[in-house]
Amino acid sequence: MIVYAPLFIVAALAMLFSGMIGNRKITEMLGFVIILGLVIVSGTRYHLGGYDYQNYVYMFKQAPSLAQFNLIDYIKLNGLIGNDIGWTLLNSLIKSLGMGFYGLTMFVALFFWLSMFFGLKKFFANINVLIVIVFYKYFLDMSFVYMRQSIAVALFIIALPALRDRKIIRYMILVILAASVHFSAIILIPLYWIGNIKLSKKKVISYSIIFTFSFVASLMHIDVMSIFSSFANLIGGTGGTKISEAAAGNLYGGNATNILHLLEFWVLNLFLLLKYETIDLGDKSNALIIRLFLILLPIYSLFAGSPIMVRDGFYFLFTYAILLDLLTKNVTIKNRLVTYMVIATISFYGMYRFATNFDNGASYHYDSFLMHKENLKTNVNVE
């Protein structure tokens, strides 16, 4: 925490300062500097990321060079989605550029954090609200542990303008590419049609009540995911196998979500409902973000017992920050700063809790390959 805490404090101060001055240029400049700090911390981490770190080292070693990688034959044999062909291709590319495993970790960190900053800054009056919240929602888990999915999340963020503007070809290319890197992104394909759903306060209230009570299904251990098993035969191949594994609950390791995630969602949802009339739903960006935010509710209620569905929440968690920024834009400076302090307190606690609990606290004490005189061309040996 000796590295994370000071960087977080700088981000929190930048959020407070930006909330007072209201200067977009300065706000984004401060945010970009902190993002670069996150790139360095994530990209140069040394043997941090739990058991997944060893898996990524193994996959990197097994990946062929780009000259030996026959993409067409690989797709014919394994299919485009389901065997993480996009991840293998990225590993091969990094290898062919003469980089080692640390070159891969640095590239993934750069791509993830810069995509998040440049892809989402247009949605914010104060981008530093996002940066403070990512310490809680994305930093030590997504950027340290879930490297493949971080690429998929970044590609989805890049696809947001296409989703908002109903450009189906561009959107589908990006999310299929994301699904080729991490299978969980397959959920993003049917997401295109949520734009056909008309929003109203009454609909949001009804939707919220129905799916909140669906949490009972998780408490009763009802196998909700089995409904997706019928799609396995329809798709076939490796993708079909992955769907079967997901339906059986065997695709990814992990635990069911904590009910606190559902309560956390509801706090923000109540805030949204109270301010609903003040939101300009004629703005396509606002409407899109509300729709994406609402997708989190069934993930944390109906599908709370499914690790794969809980992992899908990462595609939408940035909406917390956008909604908080949107809902505090026209309040008094005093109320805005009080809200920011609450956001900073909760985010720091969330980051601290993850650092102390995940992998028996292995990520609590940061280490960088720079401290071991390693470089981007170094390969890693993990026993």
TrEMBL record:
Keywords attached to this entry: Membrane, Transmembrane, Transmembrane helix
InterPro entries per record: EpsG-like
Keyword Chloroplast: no
Transmembrane segments: 6-22, 29-48, 97-116, 123-140, 146-164, 171-193, 205-224, 259-276, 288-308, 338-355
Superkingdom of origin: Bacteria
A Pfam match: EpsG
Protein name: EpsG family protein
Organism, scientific name: Periweissella cryptocerci
